[in-house]
Request: fold
Amino acid sequence: LNPGNHNQNSCSTVPASFNADILPLVTTKCAVPGCHDATASGGHFFQSYNDVNVAKELINLRVVIQKSMPPTGPLPQADIDKLKCWIGNGAPNN
Reply:
């Protein structure tokens, strides 16, 4: 018997709209002064869909897999799930 992992969230139940879920998350957690704001002191500028889409693989690595971003500590699991599902669904501009 293989009961599976009941703690995994299904992307069918996780909101992952860029405009409603991802952009507000990036704006409040990543595009903050000294990081990914207009100065891009964090190496990337995250102000639009194109900015975030170009960096989605790095975001996936650093935020979802390594949990090394943001530098203040990992995001809450619900936010990580949103990013994971948005990227896993092809990072749509929706």
